[in-house]
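WARN no homologs supplied; continuing
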Amino acid sequence: MRLTCFAASVLVRWTGLGFAIALSASACGTSFSSASDASSGGSSAGIDSNGGSGSANTAGGSSSSAGTTNGGSVSSAGTSTGGTSSGGTSTGGGGASSGGVVGIAGVNAGGGSGAPSECPCSAPTPTCELGKCVVRGPTMTKTAGFYIDSTEVTVGQYAAFLKAKGDDTSGQASECSWNTAYDPALDPIAPAPSAKHPVTNVDYCDAVAFCAWADKRLCGKIGGGNLQLPEIGDATKSQWFEACSGTKGQLYPYGTSYQDGACNDASGALMDVAAEARCQGFYPGLYDMIGNAQEWIDACDGNAGATDVCERIGGSYLNEVSMTSCGTTGGAMRNLQAPSVGFRCCSK
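OK structure emitted
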């Protein structure tokens, strides 16, 4: 709780019921004073030098003060719960009751005349943090019927997830119960990855956990659920494929024919996400749907555990040209951590 006083002098003392704060100042040769209690159900009053007085009750945790200078009225108000002020122009802060929050100029952090909460939230800003709707990980791009991350999840964004989760790996589905850490499997002698590179060396369950933390999901079936293997390249069924190829299912994110050098599909090394301006998905602002890192999607051949085969899509920086398109897929065990495999998330 923070209290700011704009005054020539301030006196704080214990009254037995709470702290009392006395404020005094002078204006145009006439002085006034005010006091506000911080105790439950307290009151405050101001007496001016001309005999005028003002008073207010603070039941429920609010306080106000009033005084008169040279015949003019000056008032200040603050609230702790419900947050309203009246009786003049609000110019200062009042006291707070037990458990209350001091308000400045009639505004408080718990509601009332303060900004209302934006929550519950939905894509493209699906996460509620302190009453605000935000996006964790990449910003999201709208497709025909859902949202998808505009880029692959980056090293820097994944680091924020690791910091937030710490050692907590609870809440995973039974097929991921073996997954006791979310850390990427990095080569200890390799250079540290760039914060703007796609995060790689993460397994399927790591990707699922990140997307859940971000209030999104690993891209799967349009409308919800996991994809059956024959549905992966169906633009009416697969979120990832529809975002890359459009509703007509074109082979490449930028059109129907291959464009050499448009995407990072054969360079032999990762690049910063969105570095290739021409490598946009069917929807503008959707980058690296082919090349850079291959991406996990929610399509597995079972739910037994670590050895289930789950699909990766979109090709990577290691692919040959003939192997890179919106429909380029490859299966791998659920627990694979590879330097060419990352992910992005879709809306629920």
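Residues 155-165 form the longest helix (11 residues).
OK
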